[in-house]
Amino acid sequence: MGGFKFERNLPHQGEAVESVLKAFDGASAVPCADRAMANLSNPTVEIRALDMSQNISKLQREFRVEDCYFDVNSNILDISMETGTGKTYTYTKMMFELQKNLGVSKFIVVVPTLSIKAGTVNFLRAKATKEHFRQEYGCEIKSYVVESKKSNKKKKEYMPQAVSQFVEANSFGAKSIHVLIINAGKINSDTMSKAFDV
Fold first, then answer.
1. pTM of this prediction?
2. Among 56, 142, 154, 181, which residue has the fewest nearby CB atoms (within 10 Å)?
């Protein structure tokens, strides 16, 4: 990606990011009371279910989205964009905006395939990407990639190193955004459902 120039402020990408932020209108960020844990964790984002429901209903009306289901007991937002519209760029920008607006600095990106994972990692680690977002937000992404590896049945099994590094990364001061990248197959594997020695 050397020499690659990002086109800034594309309307459809900006609308997508703004829509996510609008879903959180009325939210507040509450840091963890335990100082040591506060340095390692995201703040708790507090928003009443009714406010979130109203925010999303308003967005659905604004964009004429019909027949959508919204579960007030869920904390999952499903965001859809067409192929080739810059989803990776958009959700990366969204991470920076959520960090700026709510202090969230740790994210987990789950991708459907290994090839998409490779593309995501290349994008997030590219010098051009880092410089582009550093210019706009004054901080950069640190990525942690969960890789598959063969287990040795005679040895104790440990949590994948990328997961440990992500969990232990200091999020205090918002100088970096930490992103754990994992493919869906790995999440659903036996390896990730084990109780690890730590």
1. 0.86
2. 154
